[in-house]
Design goal:
By secondary structure, the protein is an alpha/beta fold. The protein folds into two domains: 161 residues, Leucine Aminopeptidase, subunit E, domain 1 (3-Layer(aba) Sandwich); 313 residues, Aminopeptidase, CATH 3.40.630. Helices cover 36% and strands 21% of the residues. It has 15 helices and 21 strands. The strands form four sheets. Strands 8, 9, 10, 11, 12, 15, 16, 17 and 19 form a nine-stranded mixed β-sheet that branches. Strands 1, 2, 3, 4, 5, 6 and 7 form a seven-stranded mixed β-sheet that branches. The protein has a three-stranded mixed β-sheet with strand order 13-14-18, covered by helices on one side. The chain binds ligand BES, manganese (II) ion (MN) and zinc ion. The site of zinc ion has 5 residues, from strand 11.
């Protein structure tokens, strides 16, 4: 599907479908009012009849409406005008695309860019409209033997603008599409099963990105990691026959003197729990345990496609977490790359064990900031559900920057406390500390564990266990937090 922007007067363009918004209480948007004039009050009569009340996401498809050039007219409910949020904006674009995709229309024009969404400008609205449209048509069919029956006729979508919106809308569209491509990659990787999406597969994906966007890529093998003393990472990998990989991607388009932002993504391609085996129900969902890694690859893709002038390093520790005769046992003590010793009291707390060595490895890049992304704890899901990601940081300014990026991108996080008092829960009788801190504040003690490895730089940690994927009937990867991370980098690049 192709997207473009064009200044269009509602009703004048001969497209397969024109979509306009209607607020709750049957209040027409500006575009709808213009259309009503063109149709000499037809629209008003339809609204008065009560078939479109303006509820958010509701749609009404009309055909051969008099006085307008497009063959179809789609009314899309926007909900209450005063509550028209970023989320409502994306939902209404999604509703429009879904409704049009069910018809035979091959092209469509969406008149949504004029809508007021908080204090966001036209560039943001175009960016988010493009993202929402692409997210809506996303399908994961790689693993089906035949392509699905439903074929979509819709080929071209024009995001209608006003006159003279010019250059900023072009940037909005380019950024929206690049973001959507990054989200799409993260979703694909998350949705792929553990027998396909292995550590080696992730490494291949990184190599492909590197080839396509001319990035530097380096994949460390087991022996390389052993040389570096990455024993906590290797202790997780040792139960699996799949070789672990430490994947490093370098995108350098910023000034040479500028220190890079480093993203570190948890890449557990399947988490059985290891010897501390997880219960069987829903264990399939642990294929998403590489979502942090997926979000790093997705963000690198988006940033490279946008050609943002930043320096960005992606580091992905990738491994399976399996039980077996070689697997790490509860009580085993391992020495991390940092030299600190860890008592592995629960082999299911493996994310922190692979991240800590990757975080130590990150030091060599003298980073401006490090952000790690991980489906780290069930406790974070209990605390925050599937709505916001958990954010922890050793630097308040960085935390604020990450939060702001999340708000702007409508991919929010919530700042949780990383206080020293919680560190006591990681006490070990036998090693420097343990890898678990008991039931209370499980998301926080996991972050406290990581904090012991990130003292040399500004660091933020995103626990995306609840936000990176959805369970239930519509289970699947969400691509979060690619929007947040990409926005963070757009802002750092000064491109907004
Ligand atoms: N990958 C899981 C966290 C997780 C759980 C993500 C549920 C998504 C949904 C992680 O490796 C894990 O198993 N964490 C344990 C930690 C515990 C043993 C301290 C958990 O949360 O139960
Ligand atoms: Mn686990
Ligand atoms: Zn895990």
């Amino acid at each position: 599907m192709e997207f473009s922007i064009k200044p269009l007067v509602p009703g004048r363009n001969a497209s397969g479908c024109a979509a306009v918004g209607i607020y709750a209480g049957r209040k027409p948007s500006t575009a709808a009012t213009l259309l009503d004039k063109a149709t000499k009050g037809y629209l008003k009569r339809v609204l008065e009849r009560g078939d479109m009340d303006g509820r958010l996401g509701a749609t009404l498809m009309l055909h051969d409406v008099p006085g307008i050039a497009s063959t179809r007219l789609l009314l899309v409910g926007l909900g209450p005008k005063a509550e028209f949020s970023a989320r409502a904006f994306r939902r209404s674009v999604a509703a429009a695309i879904k409704a049009i995709a069910r018809t035979g229309a091959t092209d469509a024009e969406l008149h949504f860019a004029e809508l007021t969404v908080g204090r966001h400008d036209i560039e943001w609205r175009i960016m988010q409209a493009a993202r929402a449209a692409r997210e809506t048509i996303y399908r994961f069919e790689q693993m089906k033997s035949k392509p699905s029956e439903e074929s979509i006729a819709l080929r071209r979508v024009v995001l209608a603008t006003g006159k003279g919106d010019g250059k900023r809308t072009a940037r909005g569209l380019a950024q929206g599409l690049a973001l959507a491509h990054g989200i799409g990659l993260a979703r694909d990787l998350g949705n792929l099963p553990g027998n396909v999406c292995t550590p080696a597969y992730l490494a291949d994906q990184a190599r492909q990105l590197a080839k396509h966007y001319r990035l530097k890529v380096n994949v460390l093998e087991r022996a390389d990691m052993a040389k570096l003393g990455m024993n906590t990472l290797l202790s997780v990998a040792q139960g699996s026959s799949q070789p672990p990989k430490l994947i490093v991607l370098e995108y350098r388009a910023g000034p040479k003197s500028q220190k890079p932002v480093v993203l570190v993504g948890k890449g557990v391609t399947f988490d059985t729990g290891g010897i501390s085996l997880k219960p069987a129900p829903e264990m399939d969902e642990m294929k998403y345990d590489m979502s942090g890694a997926g979000s790093v690859l997705g963000t690198v893709k988006a940033v490279a496609e946008m050609k943002l002038p930043v320096n960005l390093i992606g580091i992905i520790p990738a491994t399976e977490n399996m039980p077996g005769s070689r697997a790490t046992k509860p009580g085993d003590i391992v020495t991390s790359m940092s030299g600190q010793t860890v008592e592995v009291l629960n082999t299911d707390a493996e994310g922190r064990l692979i991240l800590c060595d990757a975080l130590t490895y990150a030091e060599r890049y003298e980073p401006a900031a490090v952000i790690d992304i991980a489906t780290l704890t069930g406790a974070c899901v209990i605390a925050l559900g599937h709505v916001v990601s958990g954010l922890f940081s050793n630097d308040d300014a960085l935390a604020r920057e990450v939060l702001a990026a999340g708000e702007f991108a409508d991919d929010s996080a919530w700042h949780l406390p990383l206080r020293d008092e919680y560190q006591e829960q990681l006490r070990s009788n036998f090693a420097d500390f343990a890898n678990i801190g008991g039931r209370p504040a499980g998301a926080i003690t996991a972050a406290c564990f990581l904090a012991r490895f990130t003292k040399k730089y500004k660091w933020a940690h995103l626990d995306v266990a609840g936000t990176a994927w959805k369970s239930g009937k519509n289970k699947g990867s969400t691509g979060r937090p690619v929007p947040l991370l990409t926005q963070f980098l757009i802002k750092r690049a000064g491109k907004r």
